Amino acid sequence: MSPSLRRKGERPQHHDRRWAALAVLMLPVLLIAVDNTVLSFALPAISGDLEPTGPQLLWIVDIYSLVLAGLLVPMGSLGDRIGRRRILLIGSTGFAVISLAAAFAPSAEWLIAARAAMGLFGSVLMPATLSLIRNIFVDPQERRRAIAIWAAGFSGGAALGPIVGGFLLEHFSWGSVFLLAVPVLIPLLVFAPMLVPESKDPSPNPIDLIGIVLVMATMTPLVYGIKTFASDGLRGDVVVGLVVAVVAGFAFVRRQLRRPDPMLDVRLFTNSAFSGAVLANLLSVFSLVGFLYFISQHLQLISGKTPLQAGIVLIPGLAATVISGLAVVPVVRRFTPAQVVSGGLALNAVGFGIVTIAGPAGSDLGLITAFVILGAGIGAAETISNDVILSAVPAHKAGAASAISETAYETGAVLGTAVLGSILNAAYSSHLTIPAGIPDDARAAAQETLGGATEVASHVGGDAGAQLLESARSAFDSGVALTSGIGVVLMILAAAMSLRTLRKAES
Fold this sequence. Notes:
Elements lengths: L2 H5 L10 H33 L3 H29 L1 H20 L4 H29 L3 H32 L9 H15 L13 H24 L3 H23 L13 H31 L4 H25 L5 H22 L5 H28 L6 H34 L8 H9 L1 H11 L1 H40 L6
């Protein structure tokens, strides 16, 4: 560590317990990953119980990441100011309490509100984990290994989520998946004060309330505009939303450039390696969430698997993400970050390409193979892009840098569902043929989602129900083929971008 950082009080504490501290910090990471994966598998059950519309179903998924993405930067700066361990404990407590409220949601609107509150406390919780790792592990090689473990925690949680969640969904109501937060966060609240050293910025920036409002005014209408445009076309409210997002985003950047103590140092993005790593991070998660959105529904509603069986089917792909994230640490000593990240994104393109060429109506083995390849690419790209982001800033600004990384992650999650999910829903609705014999009051539900059509078909029964189910499955798979083709193009462009922008990143 440099002398300048020591003068600023950044000397790591409890250095001999850094790996034990990392184990504690992995708990919230696992929880967030489990929560995201479990929710995808719970969507059919939620559709049947709460009867959400298509947009409501997307908002149940999106609102968490939307709120999280909008607040990560200010909450990362707040952690730098008041203490990263302290804000970690605050976020964990709030997340556990709100998870209880989500578990017993009586309506789609209630669940959307609870998910929004979970996003609020998640934004408090998540930047603290990565920024604490940045300050605890000062050796570059050890930090890269710790970040690889941190990134693998997301994949490990995603692998654990379908198994635990599948078991819960087969024996209990869908609300039980949210109760997982309680047993995971209690050990964190007990052991974090003992094992995780407190750290903060000795010269913190003041809280910028106007900046927080501008961030939210940018993210919320942006995602709304993308979601609505994908499903309903270019309407007036879409144009208004996108204009508001552009204006608010411009105002935020201008404000940060003019402030002597900005909440977010936007000048970091003039560093091509930093901005390229942020985009690579975002697009990797975009591909993962978009893929999970359709594969989880396909396995349950078309292949006829139970939630637990569907979760088991996805284990090879999720394991590939974990293994790739850990294996890439020694690989990057021989290859540049640009080569590793662009190679990972190229693998994502191959995964989507398999679905596009073979078609989702093919064997489940084809989907598993595609997911294994995509998972390996995500693991490599995520680990190295996160390391490049954190390495670009001094340790005392780790909270802000971590927040940028997390914002990219969550924005990718939002856009993965909003863009690919909305396009899939639109393609489904346009290709669906509703046969005669389906009651008028059930037609809207069948037209909205595959889960709704499956529920209507089971109630109607007979030839009409069978015809509706066949048409719905065919319409859904046609939408999957379209979104997979879009995924191929996006990932090829992302790989080319990463190869160009990350060339100056240190290996």
